[in-house]
């Protein structure tokens, strides 16, 4: 059965294995009070629609993996399209009061609402993605997307003819800025004159605007596109205009069979399963997790036809070195836009500094 | 900036303006008949998903566009039943229609996420379309772009110079007077509302077939609201609407361009909010009585009509 919820109604995933197998959502029903010895109820809130084919879609894949792996021991539900603002707190609270034992809030802007609700419900476990506040019952997790960006930058420099890449940014938060910088730094290791032009669309999800930004970047000389927004629209523009692009969050090959070089994908499933198991075993502890290529939270899609053997080899090498820990994408020397040295040779940027990164490296035009 | 870049910039502006123009033309006719339908966003979404679904299954762009228009019309008909026949509040019903449209389109479209379709074909006249600058600028768009401009002229002519247009405006200005001289106010408003729905559906179809040929939930991303604002901004006149749609589209694209060139000296967020800001100012101005009539707001706009005899 293929049924979708309306805005902000709760959806209860029953028939989990079937749903995960067919890729369809399971039937909605109203969530009642949990009874004793009921399965653990795991709730998710998403900032976008599950059908965005990007960020929220990948989180929802993770939710389905929990159901597939743990079966009858859990019941999952989700609320999609929750705006980052006061309304989020109401939704988190609603999940907490309706018997959920573990709640994943999957966008940066849900941090403060999650924190407030977590304080009010000490027995409920909370997991917040991409934030920085923890509590005894609120853990945080994030993926080192910048590692994937470094691979993309390597491929970009070896594929681009103009030496200019276009970067479609959502909103200028450290998460996005560090992606831009990691991409540019990796590209400059191959082509020191490589430039990254950035357009901010001030939205996580607006296919039309993302496409317009992509067109503007191509018109101004970019022959490689990369994005930190959630729809496949830029990929589609790249395909149409005959340039290359990197996918975001999901494998976007179907929108750019020729254009997609690779895609930086999020794989939340294993973490979600591990954390859910921890709650079931009563071993859950708060924490802060920042996993990358090594742990598999960040994955790269198969290389597209536009990646040359040389680029493939270089990209594989970067990937292997990052996994082995011999290469850090933010290892010095690094200069900022004005040419001032920010990181000395031999040093690297600490995680704490990355999390508040608000400056661009040399070669970024924004 | 060379010629090629300028042409490309203008072409991008045209694609950004077309969905706004299509939807707001429909709303303009609806409002000139005295009905305020705030469900534009919902009708656009339903049109977008219907157009996508039909083109994806049949492969026909024409059928896709027709399906988009039909879906918008169907939703508008529902609005008509509620507000015209059952005289419910137009503002509340319109808002509900948007929410309903968002949910309905997400439900209908859930099986289509992640599939691209062929883009709406672009006009290609051998010789003309290959001309250096003019060819790309004038003779190389898809059918809906030409349709939207032709529709502007047609609607302007209809409202100004035809008997039916005059009657429609009379219904919008003074429903009681129109009724008293024997016009069927409700029936005329049904036509206007359904025409509005068809145009909004086409605007949605433009999004899912031409602008970004794909279906993703809520892909209108607020364009329905901008279209509503445009009607007010244009003071209910078709040619001002045409200019307004291209102006709004132009601002949106130009700010992206300036960003990529590193020439944007105000934060991009400021430019992103300009269309909304312009609309708020217009709304404030027209909400005062004298200005409202001076700007030409239909006098019976939003008032339910109940036949007195």
Short description:
Chain A has 366 residues and is of the alpha/beta class. Chain A contains 11 helices and 16 strands.
Please describe what this structure looks like.
The complex is a heterodimer of chains A (366) and B (309). Chain A is of the alpha/beta class and 366 residues long. Chain A folds into two domains: 11-143, Response regulator (Rossmann fold), CATH 3.40.50; 145-265 and 299-365, Rossmann fold, CATH 3.40.50.2300. Chain A is 36% helix and 20% strand. In chain A, the strands form three sheets. A seven-stranded mixed beta sheet of chain A has the order 1-3-2-4-5-6-12, sandwiched between helices. A seven-stranded mixed beta sheet of chain A has the order 13-11-10-9-7-8-16, sandwiched between helices. In chain A, strand 7, helix 6 and strand 8 (195-200) form a beta-alpha-beta unit. The model of chain A is unreliable at 1-36 (pLDDT under 50). With 309 residues, chain B is mainly α. Chain B has one domain. Chain B is 72% helix and 0% strand. Chain B has helices at 3-32, 40-58, 61-85, 90-109, 134-138, 143-161, 163-173, 175-180, 185-211, 223-233, 238-261, 268-272, 274-286, 289-295. The longest helix of chain B has 30 residues, at 3-32. The mean pLDDT of chain B is 89. At the A-B interface, strand 8, helix 7 and helix 8 of A face helix 1, helix 4, helix 11 and helix 12 of B.
């Amino acid at each position: 059965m293929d049924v979708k919820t309306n805005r902000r109604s709760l959806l209860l995933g029953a028939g989990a294995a079937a749903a995960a197998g067919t890729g369809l959502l399971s039937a909605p029903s109203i969530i009642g009070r949990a009874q004793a010895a009921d399965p653990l109820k795991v709730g998710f809130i998403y900032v976008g629609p599950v059908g965005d084919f990007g960020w929220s879609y990948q989180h929802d894949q993770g939710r389905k993996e929990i159901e597939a792996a743990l079966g009858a021991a859990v019941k999952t539900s989700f609320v999609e399209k929750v705006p980052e603002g006061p309304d989020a707190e109401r939704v988190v609270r609603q999940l907490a009061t309706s018997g959920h034992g573990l709640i994943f809030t999957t966008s940066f802007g849900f941090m403060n609402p999650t924190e407030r609700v977590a304080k009010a419900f000490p027995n409920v476990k909370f997991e917040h993605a991409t934030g920085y506040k923890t509590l005894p019952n609120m853990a945080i997790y994030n993926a080192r997307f910048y590692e994937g960006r470094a691979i993309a930058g390597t491929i970009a420099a070896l594929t681009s003819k103009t030496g200019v890449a276009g970067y479609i940014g959502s909103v200028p938060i450290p998460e996005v800025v560090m992606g831009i910088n990691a991409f540019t730094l990796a590209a400059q290791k191959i082509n020191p004159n490589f430039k990254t032009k950035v357009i901010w669309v001030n939205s996580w999800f607006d296919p039309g605007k993302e496409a317009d930004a992509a067109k503007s970047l191509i018109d101004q000389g970019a022959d490689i596109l990369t994005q930190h927004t959630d729809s496949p629209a830029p990929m589609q523009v790249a395909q149409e205009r005959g340039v290359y692009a990197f996918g975001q969050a999901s494998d976007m090959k179907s929108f750019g069979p020729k254009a997609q070089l690779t895609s930086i994908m999020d794989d939340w499933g294993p973490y979600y399963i591990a954390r859910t198991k921890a709650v079931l075993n009563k071993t859950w502890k708060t924490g802060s997790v920042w996993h990358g290529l090594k742990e598999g939270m960040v994955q790269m899609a198969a290389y597209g036809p536009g990646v040359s053997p040389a680029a493939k080899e270089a990209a594989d090498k970067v990937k292997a070195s990052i996994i082995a820990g011999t290469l850090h994408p933010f290892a010095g020397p690094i200069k900022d836009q004005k040419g001032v040295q920010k990181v000395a040779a031999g040093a690297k940027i600490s995680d704490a500094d990355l999390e508040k990164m608000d400056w661009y490296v040399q070669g970024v035009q924004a | 900036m060379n010629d090629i870049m300028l042409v490309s910039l203008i072409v991008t502006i045209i694609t950004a303006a077309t969905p706004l123009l299509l939807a707001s033309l429909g709303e303009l006719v609806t409002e000139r008949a005295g009905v305020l339908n705030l469900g534009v966003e919902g009708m656009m979404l339903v049109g977008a998903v219907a157009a996508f679904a039909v083109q994806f299954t049949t492969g026909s762009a024409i059928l896709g566009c027709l399906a988009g228009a039909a879906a918008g019309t169907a939703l508008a008909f529902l609005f008509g039943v509620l507000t015209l026949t059952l005289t419910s509040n137009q503002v509340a019903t319109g808002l509900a229609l948007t929410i309903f449209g968002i949910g309905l389109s997400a439900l209908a479209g859930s099986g289509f996420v992640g599939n691209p379709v062929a883009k709406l074909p672009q006009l290609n006249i051998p010789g003309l379309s290959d001309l250096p600058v003019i060819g790309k600028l004038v003779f190389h768009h898809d059918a809906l772009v030409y349709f939207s401009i032709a529709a502007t002229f047609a609607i302007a002519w209809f409202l100004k110079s035809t008997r039916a247009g005059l009657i429609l405006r009379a219904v919008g200005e003074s429903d009681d007077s129109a009724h008293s001289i024997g016009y069927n106010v409700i029936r005329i408003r049904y036509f206007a509302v359904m025409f509005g729905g068809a145009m909004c559906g086409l605007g949605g179809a433009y999004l899912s077939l031409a602008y970004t040929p794909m279906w993703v939930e809520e892909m209108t991303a607020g364009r329905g609201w901008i279209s509503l604002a445009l009607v007010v901004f244009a003071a209910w006149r078709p040619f001002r609407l045409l200019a307004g749609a291209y102006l709004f589209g132009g601002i949106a694209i130009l700010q992206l361009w300036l960003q990529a060139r590193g020439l944007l000296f105000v934060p991009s967020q400021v430019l992103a909010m300009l269309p909304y800001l312009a609309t708020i100012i217009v709304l404030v101005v027209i909400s005062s009585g004298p200005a409202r009539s001076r700007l030409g707001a239909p006098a019976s706009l939003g008032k339910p009509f109940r036949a007195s005899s």
